[in-house]
Amino acid sequence: MSMIDYTLARSRRRTVAIYIRDGAVEVRAPLRTAKRDIDAFVASKERWIAGKLAQSREQLRRRGEFALNYGGAVTLRGVEYALTASGDGARADTDNPFTLPPELTPEQIRSEVVQIYRECAKRHLTERVAHFAGVMNAEPSAVKISGAKTRWGSCSGKKSLNFSWRLILADDGAIDYVVVHELAHLTEMNHSARFWRLVAGVLPDYRARQARLRALQRKLGGEDY
What we know:
The protein is α/β, with parallel strands linked by helices. The protein folds into 2 domains: 7-65, no CATH class; 104-220, 2-Layer Sandwich (Zincin-like), CATH 3.30.2010.10. 44% of the residues lie in helices and 19% in strands. The chain is built from 6 helices and 10 strands, in the order βββααββββαβββααα. It has a 3-stranded mixed sheet. The protein has a 3-stranded mixed sheet with strand order 8-10-9, covered by helices on one side. A two-stranded antiparallel ribbon has the order 4-5. A hairpin with a 2-residue loop joins β4 and β5 (79-82). α4 packs across α5 (193-202) and α4 (172-184) crosses α6. The longest helix has 31 residues, at 106-136. The protein is flat. The model has no long low-confidence stretch (mean pLDDT 92).
């Protein structure tokens, strides 16, 4: 029997799956799967669960300590910038987009930084979608910026492309991969072999770009934006 504490959610799904979220274990199982079988499955994954729980709790610890202050650093399109205070009390028009009004609290700094990220994401992603739409002969209906935390991008049935503002922290090559990925969904609304051939036809090194995004996702897991 499993000695691991977990919450159980049943649905019309076909398989048992384990999710680690915010330092806790959630198990999703089919409606008719016996509890003893679920416990046995969880027990068989005990070492994996322990490792993932440790990672998740470390992320929670880092997130709780996260704060933005003058003199700290933030990342935009893979480039690190210092958080600085302007001398005239307004956001300065300099080479550093993170020159902020002085005497802001950490929470106010966070709000300013997120707004800058959103503005940059809308501008840059709109440009990159237009570029690759021409390359791929695709016609998205819209480009929208969201606050999604678990998905870099998505493509709706109405051909609208949605991107998390957090994507603007990635380097330009990784950003382009997400743009191409979502544009490819306008042709293939799945992740079939044909879909990946379409992506590879535009970005042959897409796997390396995926790896950089995974590294960024782990980093953001410990940052409370």
